[in-house]
Write a structure and sequence with these properties.
The complex is a heterotetramer, with 2 copies of chain A (338 residues) and 2 copies of chain B (326 residues).
Chain A: E1 8-9, H1 11-25, E2 29-33, H2 49-53, E3 58-60, H3 65-77, E4 81-88, H4 96-103, H5 106-109, E5 119-124, H6 139-144, E6 149-151, H7 156-168, E7 173-178, E8 195-196, E9 210-213, E10 218-222, H8 226-239, E11 244-248, E12 251-253, H9 257-267, E13 270-277, H10 282-293, E14 303-307, H11 316-322, H12 326-337
Parallel strand pairs in A: 2-3, 2-4, 4-5, 5-7, 6-7, 10-11, 10-13, 13-14
Antiparallel strand pairs in A: 1-8, 6-12, 9-11
Chain B: H1 3-26, H2 51-58, E1 66-69, H3 74-80, H4 84-91, E2 115-117, H5 125-137, E3 144-149, H6 156-168, E4 172-178, E5 181-182, E6 185-186, E7 207-210, H7 215-230, E8 236-241, H8 261-267, H9 270-280, H10 286-309
Parallel strand pairs in B: 1-2, 1-3, 3-4, 4-8, 7-8
Antiparallel strand pairs in B: 5-6
The chains are: A alpha/beta (338), B alpha/beta (326).
The complex binds thiamine diphosphate (TPP) (2 copies) and magnesium ion (2 copies).
Chain lengths: 338, 326, 338, 326
């Protein structure tokens, strides 16, 4: 099959396509998790895989996250390359010990002799009133503990390339897909995430940020679902004569410090936008990187926009008040560039 | 009103509530279904069909006994006596809601009736043990009941909590609602034993299986368990067979169900059966039933009206309540 | 009993004294956890309490952290004020869901109607070769998720006052004691932590940083076991004519931003020192606060010293290489002030 | 050498190793005990007295069968055939260690013998299920064994892993070493059932209790369990009674023990008993035993010498191995 010049895919399809291609390529790639089989994953990340590869390779699990995530540890040690789904990142707390004390650290604790080629993928993000236990981002927390690569795609093209790279990586990779980018139909989705995706497998190296919009007046450093929001804000401001650069980090670990610093040195201003909680997370880290390495280039204080350290509330009014919006990004950039 | 008829009435109230929620849930979500839109946004897990579990157990509880409920909580909340208007307002995300719109349908908290719930599967077991511990330490003869689905019985918290409660002889009743599925995963694919009640053996506590989704049988088993707990003889594990008449959540296409499965559940409707039984036993007349239906309809309508007429919260409310003030 | 003018206590004794006094004061205060009874807590934080209050109020638990930490949720809802010990913070992953999805969020999710006056105390820190699963600090992670107060005392006086305040607080408080400050005898302990502790109960409000050493050339912002290390570094530099201000944050949540900003505005330089992992944690957050609010006052880049994003290695040589030392702090400050 | 004598020999090797570690552990820690100081810093959990568990089970394993061990891992590692020199060097924190000094005594990893361990109680259950899953998927007839203490059997992972393994009929053997205590907490204060083996019923798998810390009885039970797993009949839960001859860790004053408890364990020393039995059965002579003792002493001495002569790692090594390179 030839790749069509403009084959647009939703991010959900891009992810399942990447997994399917890697499963076809390597019989050691298996998928397991809750409702990943017939259901195809609650958010469609494993759609079609059960039909194609059967119950031997696409396995529904009980609601036993410690056991089935922990199983990926032993399984990968013995040669499998599991892709495991944690349905919502919000549930990490029932399995965190297996994730961070073992999956993340065994390579180091073994002096490099043990490898865990595991992808742990999980849904993040709010915006549809799923409240405090089903709407979080939390990748900052996984980026804080050493040993996990942290991937957060913002569009279908990146989603496929990063998933393929994640599966081929010999390290545990946490892969976070934002529900509001997946193109699910039954949930609002930013159509900027639905882009051309080549049919052939390709990889995007983990650790490379991307400037998705060049600008010269101020930099927005962001990730995931905030990338299209930042782009929309930048477009509005372009009409006002303000030139905004948008940097999509794409991965938090490894972190592409150079790209961040380079951008800030160019624009002399940084707004960091995140859907994770504001304090002790991604926005702090990026601010620190800038303050360490580009302080003299800054001509105004660094600004941060993120969830203001409150759990995600249920009511749409309240939720919209705490998740950074295009309007809030636009307004903040306007303030910064006046 | 006779106890059995009271139970029937509560079951009807729950059913009416869930049917009504199912309807309201679609408001604003057509023609294209969007989970984020409408009067009630977000996920919605309805418990129609599972009324006997809530009603059969909770009829033995007092208002200061504690209940922890899972993501599918309406039937438990209603049976426990949570104010229907404030609960509905919460589900509508209104300022008058139990949590002023901060919690939503999976996070109904009512200190007055000692009712809590959580959207995390299996998370209600430990808090129930803790409530029971408080009762013991304070010399109160209260009881805590943790309700959870059969899917939740494979969470680590199930094991840890049963062991802890058994060890401490804490006044807890653990109730597993077996509705055959955890989302799309049938019990046989998640559970290495046919009856969760047998897991009680692992903690030297009684385990009781109640089949048939029959409110009287459930009530009988629950009575024994609650009494046992209240009298200081420790926890019991109750497993109750039931059926889920809607999908896992609203919008679930239920493609994973076997052909005819849903229909057979519908035919086995616990309310219809109980109604027939009460009529057989001459405890309920058509006329009385009509009055009951009218009354529960009214109750639900009132609650919904209250919710509809309530205001949305102000945006800056979002920043409050992270921490309690002194 | 009159308070002696200079009654020095180890931090471990100060903690157990505070708990004991609150237990005497309020019969709803109970203690539970692993080995908190006869053993007195592996790190002595509950020493003497079992003898004094008996097994009804000082309860040994099975190794079931989810259950016994989760039990504090229901227990506090029903009127108890539990002080629960998680033996090492490193084990948080087996119980994190109860901690952060419930204990931390219930107050918010209930619109304020539910309160959880719970202290979850836990041991942190390395320096004695307990390796990757028993040496971490991790408070940054708890500070990232909303709803938990985060307390990290650096000496016995603060330890008592902060514990008393924590127990009386109506919110869940995570109380982190560093093993290397406790004065245990069988483990190296910084004797700067063993200070005068009044016998009568007193509280230190949560959310107030303290300037433990006034200075004018550069600020060290730090917490926990790094406070005495910073003080030692400052003393060395004082002899070289460099005046270092040391700010002990004492709590991360609430964070005393004002004290941090005030200090940096005065000294025009900030070194942030932490024993937690470097990235996406405390050092980033403090840097961000400074970059947001005191950018114009900085006359050199912000510097950070923390565990360089590696698990804590076992060998003393390796461990000493990754945990910030007095020497490293001294040297960094020297570089910054030259 | 006869199988039983081989087992005896391995038990002696383990005992000698643990006694030697106990001694070396004190080096540099006197006169004032400091956990951070000496040849071997950090915690040290010794398994003297528990040799029969490791030896009785692992004799039925191949080198490519997987073992996950807990914080008290030496006996398992030795029985599994982990290189004694590299293991000792790791415990000494040396560059030639299994993990080049990064892991230490609770983190012994040896891909060659498929051996792993963890300092987190109960953490070894899920990885063992995962290893077994890999064996099934790859069509290998290997087996995974998860060892853990009786304290670990109250962790959520125990329940989740047994259920998962039973459900998948995975080739795993779960072995609970019941040494009566979890640090200071006696089993009766942590476990709501007298025998963990009975918890197997909760997963419809066989549960076997072996009393007496008797290597032959353990070996017999293990043989059946391992064979069952290897032949595709799924998991078994083995519970083995044993005794801990040192404290929980070195430096533990054991104030929580009952009077005479330790002495009775000492008198019931499994190695001494097995030795007497072998001699009774004419399978071991004094002379042979002396040769065995000399040989194991030599083996331990060699390992210790290797470790002592090895270099410490370079400080900048600390920054390597967080991630594997491609
Ligand atoms: C720890 C955790 N894992 C997964 C989920 C997602 N989830 C929500 S409900 C559910 C199924 C629960 O099944 P069961 O316990 O049988 O209750 P039922 O929905 O049938 O009432 C799942 C997997 C969750 N909320 N929490
Ligand atoms: C999750 C977790 N909780 C607590 C501890 C602290 N801890 C280490 S060993 C131990 C006791 C373990 O008892 P058991 O499983 O019976 O093994 P034993 O020490 O008796 O061999 C405890 C509580 C830990 N390492 N991990
Ligand atoms: Mg169910
Ligand atoms: Mg034990």
């Amino acid at each position: 099959m030839a790749t069509m010049p403009m084959r647009k895919l939703t991010m959900a399809r891009a992810i399942s396509e990447a997994i399917g291609q890697e499963m076809a390529r390597d019989s050691n790639v298996l998928v397991w998790g809750e409702d990943v089989g017939i259901y195809g994953g609650i958010f469609g990340a494993t759609q079609g895989l059960f039909e194609r590869f059967g119950p031997e390779r696409v396995v529904d699990t009980p609601i036993s996250e410690s056991a089935f995530i922990g199983a990926a540890i032993g399984a990968s040690q013995e040669g499998l390359r599991p892709v495991v789904e944690l349905m919502f990142v919000d549930f990490f707390g029932v399995a965190m010990d297996q994730i961070y004390n073992h999956l993340a650290k065994n390579h180091y604790m073994s002096g490099g002799s043990v490898r865990h080629p595991v992808v742990l993928m999980t849904a993040i993000g709010g915006g549809y009133s799923d409240a405090a236990q089903h709407s979080q981002s939390l990748y900052g927390l996984f980026a804080h503990v050493p040993g996990l690569k942290v991937v957060v795609p913002s569009n279908a093209y990146d989603a496929k390339g990063l998933m393929t790279a994640a599966i081929r990586d010999d390290n545990p990779v946490m892969y976070f897909f934002h529900k509001g980018l997946l193109g699910l139909g039954w949930m609002p989705s930013d159509d900027l995430a639905e882009v051309h995706v080549p049919e052939d497998p390709y990889t995007i190296p983990l650790g490379q940020a991307q400037v998705v919009l060049e600008g010269k007046d101020v930099s927005v450093i962001t990730i995931g679902a905030m990338v299209p929001k930042a782009v929309r804000a930048a477009r509005t401001l372009a009409q006002e004569g303000v030139s905004v650069e948008v940097v999509d980090l794409r991965t938090l670990v490894p972190l592409d410090r150079d790209r961040v610093i380079h951008s800030v040195k160019k624009t002399h201003g940084a707004l960091i936008v995140d859907e994770d909680y504001r304090s002790f997370g991604m926005t702090g880290e990026i601010a620190a990187v800038v303050a360490e390495e580009a302080l003299d280039y800054l001509d105004r204080p660094i600004r941060r926009l993120a969830v203001p350290d409150v759990p995600i509330p249920y009511s749409p009014v309240l939720e919209q008040a705490v998740i950074p919006s295009v309007e809030k990004i636009t307004e903040t950039l306007r303030q910064m560039t006046q | 009103m006779d106890n059995d008829v009271m139970m029937y009435r509560t079951m009807c109230l729950i059913r009416r509530y869930e049917d009504c929620m199912a309807e309201i849930y679609t408001e604003g979500k057509t023609p294209l279904f969007s989970i984020a839109a409408g009067t009630v946004p977000g996920e919605m897990h309805l418990a129609a069909g599972q009324e006997p579990v809530a009603v059969g157990v909770i009829r033995h509880l007092r208002s200061d006994d504690a209940v922890t409920a899972p993501h599918r909580p309406h039937h438990f909340a209603i049976a426990k006596g949570v104010d229907l208007g404030r609960m509905t307002a919460e589900i509508f995300g209104r300022r008058t809601g139990l949590s002023q719109g901060k919690g939503g349908h999976m996070h109904l908290f009512d200190p007055q009736t000692h009712f809590s719930c959580s959207g995390i599967v299996g998370a209600g077991f430990p808090p129930a043990v803790g409530a029971a511990l408080a009762f013991m330490k304070q010399g109160r003869d209260n009881v805590a009941v943790a309700f959870a689905g059969e899917g939740a019985a494979n969470q680590g918290t199930f094991h840890e909590s049963l062991n802890l409660a058994a060890l401490w002889k804490a006044p807890v009743v653990f109730v597993i609602e077996d509705n055959h599925y955890a989302i799309s995963v049938p019990k046989a694919q998640s559970t290495a034993i046919s009856h969760n009640s047998e897991r009680a053996q692992a903690y030297s506590i009684p385990g009781v299986y109640v089949s048939g989704n029959d409110v009287l049988a459930i009530s009988e088993a629950a009575q024994e368990a609650v009494t046992r707990a209240r009298q200081g003889h420790g926890p019991t594990l109750l497993e109750v067979e039931t059926t889920r008449l809607y999908g896992h959540f609203q919008g679930d296409a239920e493609a994973y169900l076997n052909a005819g499965e849903k229909e057979s559940w519908r035919q086995w409707d616990p309310i219809r059966r109980f109604r027939a039984e009460l009529m057989d036993r001459q405890m309920l007349s058509e006329e009385q039933d009509e009055r009951i239906q009218a009354a529960v309809n009214q109750q639900v309508d009132d609650a919904v009206r209250f919710a509809r007429e309530s205001h949305e919260p102000e945006a800056d409310e979002a920043l409050r309540d992270v921490f309690a003030e002194a």
